[in-house]
Design a protein that fits this description.
Structural class: alpha+beta
Order of helices and strands: EEHHEHHHE
Shape: elongated
Strand content: 5-15%
Distance between the termini: 21 Å
Length: about 160
């Protein structure tokens, strides 16, 4: 089984690939900060349209969707790059690394977020892929060269 070593301020900690259950728990938990960002993003959009709501299917509605997607992506990518994990990943000791167990690059993390969107949009097939991959990698891990690992508890 793959064992990764993390570069942290403290002593390195062993890690193993995270299985689908831990990923789903983190994703569920991350809906809370994402909702907060969406409320903030919607408030910005309302301010920009002077309180006028946008019609469903209009160009403004698509722009708002793009804005919220980018806002969510900024949360995920910045969290992964700076601390290796989002708020939803912390309780379960999950971390995103590159293939060598180090901090992943900005470009790899942006690609990870974009492909994760496709993974979820394809009815979760990209996530389900982790059930058949030996290292529990999903489509976005494979595309970006990243791994989601579960850190062993500190001793």
């Amino acid at each position: 089984m793959l064992r990764a070593r993390m570069d942290t301020a403290s002593a390195p900690t062993a890690a193993r690939p995270a299985h689908l259950g831990w990923r789903l728990l983190a994703l569920l938990y991350d809906t809370l900060p994402a909702l907060a960002l969406w409320f903030l993003g919607a408030a910005v959009m309302l301010a920009l349209t002077f309180g006028r709501t946008v019609a469903p299917g209009s160009i403004e509605a698509w722009m708002e969707l793009l804005w919220l997607w980018l806002l969510t992506g900024a949360y995920a990518v910045i969290s992964w790059r700076l601390g290796g994990q989002t708020l939803g990943m912390r309780p379960w000791r999950l971390r995103v690394t590159d293939a060598q167990g180090q901090r992943a690059s900005w470009s790899a993390l942006c690609l990870r977020y974009a492909v994760a969107t496709v993974s979820l949009a394809a009815f979760g097939l990209g996530l389900l892929w982790s059930l058949i991959d030996r290292q529990h990698r999903s489509w976005h891990d494979l595309a970006s060269g990243t791994l989601m690992v579960r850190m062993d508890p500190s001793r």
